[in-house]
Design brief:
This protein is of the alpha+beta class. Helix content is 31%, strand content 32%.
Length: 146
């Protein structure tokens, strides 16, 4: 069940650079020229308080789902106030990557049937979610509708 036929997304380019003397990488979005300091986990020599690549990865999934929810709701003509919150955690191992993904999705302001319909469409249309699902990652979901 798809909301749209496969839409082409423009090529996304980012660049990361670091030096041997710093535990920080500088991530640059080539299209907008915005930059972000990223660090390793503190137990691997990183700096506390800086996002890690794994946090950015998980944050990308969570934010992609929230954006897709809003886009699909708008496409379906949903009006009025609603909100969606996606909490996400991932179990990673060096050498094997992402092994497990836990999602808790809270939707408020919509009736159950509509919220479930939109979220099913999100799962089938979100580029990050569908990529991870295709890789066979164990995904546990809890959807709360208030």
């Amino acid at each position: 069940m798809y909301i749209v036929e496969s839409r082409e997304i423009p090529l996304i380019e980012v660049e990361a650079s670091s030096t041997s003397s710093k535990s920080i990488a500088y991530l640059v979005n080539k299209a907008s020229s915005t930059s972000l300091e990223v660090s390793e986990l503190p137990q691997f020599g990183g700096i506390e308080g800086k996002p890690t690549p794994l946090e950015l990865f998980l944050g990308g999934i969570a934010s992609c789902e929230t954006f897709m929810f809003r886009m699909i709701a708008s496409t379906l003509g949903v009006r009025g106030e609603y909100s969606i919150t996606v909490r996400i955690s991932g179990k990673f191992k060096i050498g094997t990557g992402l092994e497990k993904l836990d999602l808790e999705v809270t939707i408020t302001g919509l009736d159950r049937e509509l919220a479930e319909k939109i979220y099913l469409l999100v799962k089938n249309n979100c580029p990050l979610y569908t990529t991870i699902r295709k890789l066979g990652v164990d995904i546990a979901e809890k959807v709360i509708i208030k």
